[in-house]
Design a protein that fits this description.
Length: 404
């Protein structure tokens, strides 16, 4: 499916681009859709950070991402790498005790915080020690009316000031003269649209996973089994682990290992993020079903010839159509996933055991019988065993589909 985001450049006093604000869009039309703030932020994270990453959109520069009351409460910031983003706290967040504690927690997790569309009142004073950036919307608070506030804030040496909604040369010159550090608005650049391909997921599986993790004693094996049934969910899970949010100490060779590494609380937040971001799917279900059948087929073959690699074989099959689903080169996609070298090599058509197993599966799927007989020789497997293994894979994949 196609997903959309707009970015608007932020300039320094030398008029060099230093960052981009990312603005959620749900169509090629360049305006904010009529949806709630929490869903917009969740979808922006799912469709961008857990796709190719915000750095891909911002050309390596900082990304300013809007966080409103709902997103703050849900801790959606937990899915963003603090080194790559600035958390833009929307003006709808009240300066009360509860929000202060949540902002202080973000500060101690090394997030850079900004106050958006700032209108000064004394209740904000204690927040000032937590923030690095304050934004003024000059269409709401005109520059010639906020001189006393600017002078007060400039006493805080660690706080930078940004003037947004600049539309004329006069606006820029006045803001520059007043000592603003950064500038944003149509005078410099309108938001530009970026379209990407993302991977859709089976929402019924999300519900099943959520139900399992809410149990007093969740079964990690059962949860891993549910993730195994949807290449899209598995992809998002592995992207999360390799997105810069968590330090990866070792390569991930199975979905169960990924879940154990993520931990129960993070997993609950992750599934909550998916639930918040969910919209009706548009990706053909058949392609996703092929991924699941192929994954199980690869796993069953591996158990016959290289049992120690059965988990890796499952992941190889599950992600072998990712380039077709996302319309992206496989070489780009595998860089975004925390796979061992053997899986990456197989997905890039480099010859190893996993590649040969996948080659057998592809030949069987297409009915290329001469190619199949050549392929099974390389893994020392009798082709007569394949129909039964394939039927087992289909039955396994259909079992959940027919009951969900």
């Amino acid at each position: 499916m196609s997903v959309f985001v707009a970015r608007q450049a932020i300039f320094n006093r030398r008029q060099n681009v230093v960052a981009y604000e990312l603005l959620f869009r749900d169509s090629p039309k360049n305006y904010f859709p009529d949806i709630c703030e929490g869903e917009a932020t969740a979808r922006l994270i799912m469709e961008n950070q857990l796709n190719l990453g915000t750095r891909h959109i911002t050309s390596g520069k900082k990304a300013l991402i809007n966080i409103g009351p709902e997103s703050l409460e849900l801790d959606l910031c937990a899915f963003l790498p603090c080194q790559d983003v600035v958390i833009e706290l929307l003006e709808t967040i009240e300066p009360n005790d509860k929000n202060y504690e949540m902002c202080r927690d973000l500060f101690h997790r090394n997030f850079n915080l900004a106050l958006d569309d700032f209108v000064y009142k004394p209740q904000w004073d204690r927040f000032l020690k937590l923030v690095k950036l304050i934004k003024f919307d000059i269409s709401v608070t005109p520059l010639n009316e906020i001189t006393p506030v600017i002078k007060k804030l400039q006493q805080h040496k660690k706080i930078k000031l940004l003037a947004e909604k600049l539309e004329t040369q006069e606006d820029f010159e006045l803001a520059h003269k007043m000592g603003f550090d950064y500038f944003q608005g149509y005078f410099f650049a309108k938001p530009t649209m970026i379209t990407q391909n993302d991977i859709d997921y089976n929402y019924s599986l999300v519900v099943a996973i959520y139900a399992e993790i809410m149990k007093p004693s969740p079964d990690i094996k059962a949860i891993a089994g549910l993730f195994e049934l949807d290449a899209a969910l598995a992809y998002k899970l592995l992207r999360l682990l390799n997105s810069g949010v968590f330090p990866i100490q070792s390569k991930i060779s199975s979905l169960k290992q990924a879940l154990v590494y993520l931990g129960h609380e993070r997993l609950k937040k992750f599934v909550g993020l998916i639930v918040t971001a969910h919209t009706a799917g548009k990706k053909p279900a058949e392609l996703m079903q092929i991924c699941v059948v192929r994954a199980r087929f690869c796993e069953l073959i591996a158990k016959k010839i290289a049992k120690q690699q059965s988990d890796e074989a499952f992941l190889t099959g599950l992600f072998s159509l990712l380039d077709a689903i996302l319309d992206q080169p496989m070489s780009l996609l595998v860089e975004k996933l925390p796979f061992p070298d053997e899986i990456k090599a197989a997905l890039l058509d480099e010859k190893n055991t996993l590649y040969y197993i996948l080659n057998v599966v592809k030949a069987f799927e297409t009915g290329s019988w001469w190619a199949l007989e050549q392929a099974v020789i390389l893994i020392n497997l009798n082709s007569k065993a394949l129909p039964e293994l394939y039927q087992q894979a289909v039955d396994w994949a259909d079992n959940y589909k027919n009951n969900s």
